[in-house]
Design goal:
- The protein has one domain (4-121, 132-140).
- 46% of the residues lie in helices and 0% in strands.
- The protein is built from 7 helices and no strands.
- α1 (4-26) runs antiparallel to α3, α3 packs antiparallel against α5 (84-95) and α5 packs antiparallel against α7 (133-140).
- The protein is globular and about 55 Å long.
Length: 173
């Protein structure tokens, strides 16, 4: 399956999330509510997903949750096979825990560019979860171990890169 455009959109979204975090951090108001700042600050108005976060989420909490929600993305987006559940479930559980309506709005927006995003995940419960978010992620869709033991090679053997993102030998892309 050719998913390079989905990967591109997800990478651009990750960049948008980091840009929003940067803009929020520059306000110098870690105890302010993200949704309130998103409506007040011109630099944040283009980030509509900030308005669907939990209304009580502060900038400091958003920063912590964002890092937890997206830390897997760079590695996952470089894997040969996309682990779609891992990409979406970390965001669902770390950024939208206890906010099912916000999650639905976020998924609806994401699916305009990446059709499959958020599909196949278990339904969220209202209210905050008592279990840690990472435990819920492992239950919902465990992140597959991406480390594969490679056969040992000679130290002077050519370093071949095969598969995505490297083109196949002989291809013109």
């Amino acid at each position: 399956m050719d998913d390079r455009f989905d990967r591109r959109e997800l990478l651009l979204h990750l960049g948008d999330m980091l840009e929003a975090l940067s803009c929020l951090s520059k306000t110098g108001r870690p105890d302010s509510l993200v949704a309130q700042l998103a409506m007040e600050q011109d630099s944040l108005r283009d980030f509509g997903y900030l308005r669907v976060l939990d209304r009580k989420m502060t900038v400091a909490e958003f920063s912590e949750r964002l890092a937890s929600a997206f830390f897997l993305w760079p590695k996952e987006l470089l894997e040969a096979e996309l682990n779609r559940n891992a990409l979406a479930s970390t965001v669902q559980h770390d950024l939208f825990d206890g906010n099912p309506s916000g999650w639905k709005a976020y998924v609806a927006e994401m699916q305009k560019k990446v059709r499959w995003f958020g599909t196949g995940l278990p339904a969220m419960k209202s209210g905050t979860s008592e279990e840690p978010a990472h435990a819920a992620i492992e239950e919902a869709s465990p992140v597959e171990v991406s480390v594969v033991v490679a056969p040992s090679v000679e130290w002077d053997a050519p370093d071949e890169k095969k598969g995505w993102p490297w083109p196949q030998p002989g291809s013109t892309s």
